[in-house]
What we know:
The complex is a heterodimer of chains A (114) and B (110).
Chain A lengths: L4 E3 L2 E4 L5 E6 L6 E8 L3 E9 L2 E4 L8 E7 L2 E6 L8 E8 L8 E2 L3 E5 L1
Parallel strand pairs in A: 2-11
Antiparallel strand pairs in A: 1-3, 3-8, 4-5, 4-9, 5-6, 7-8, 9-10, 9-11
Chain B lengths: L9 E5 L4 E6 L7 E7 L6 E7 L4 E3 L3 E6 L4 E6 L8 E9 L2 E4 L3 E6 L1
Parallel strand pairs in B: 1-10
Antiparallel strand pairs in B: 2-7, 3-4, 3-8, 5-6, 6-7, 8-9, 8-10
Amino acid sequence: DAGVIQSPRHEVTEMGQEVTLRCKPISGHDYLFWYRQTMMRGLELLIYFNNNVPIDDSGMPEDRFSAKMPNASFSTLKIQPSEPRDSAVYFCASSPTGGIRAAFFGQGTRLTVV
Amino acid sequence: GESVGLHLPTLSVQEGDNSIINCAYSNSASDYFIWYKQESGKGPQFIIDIRSNMDKRQGQRVTVLLNKTVKHLSLQIAATQPGDSAVYFCAENAGNMLTFGGGTRLMVKP
């Protein structure tokens, strides 16, 4: 298995632009998580899905952030409009139901908003 | 002005020595715990997990100890190698949500 795949690996954008981050979870995993990592706040859970349905989005910072999971093999995290304080590394992770419940992470997308 | 970031505790060990990384968790309802390793520029990598009905679990060169009485988790790495240098996170799982600790940086001296 290729693991969780995220794209792009790096994104530099200007303030006010729309940014879309993409994630392909591990096949067969029915949980998908979006995390943000910064030096200030560490790893924060933004939102998670179960069977493509958003379960908890209480970590999403504000309405500028939205996430979708149109099918079991694809999810997006969108920021519109982006701001410099959104600069961070965004991780997608997936996990299966039962058994090992650990989340397996992608390599992350480093977002820089200038 | 310059922003202040998380100050990661650092553990510095000699190559070949054993390392012990500690973690305090907060939620007494957490029933599953995981240790992750994160190398620079990479995502957190699963190392080992333990369920709350256990107090010890061993893997290859790693052992996790769980003390539910004091809500404490530790990761022991035997014969630490330069490739073990990374930031280590503990995570607790209550329900289906993982909550991460702040992390400890392990530096291995050759």
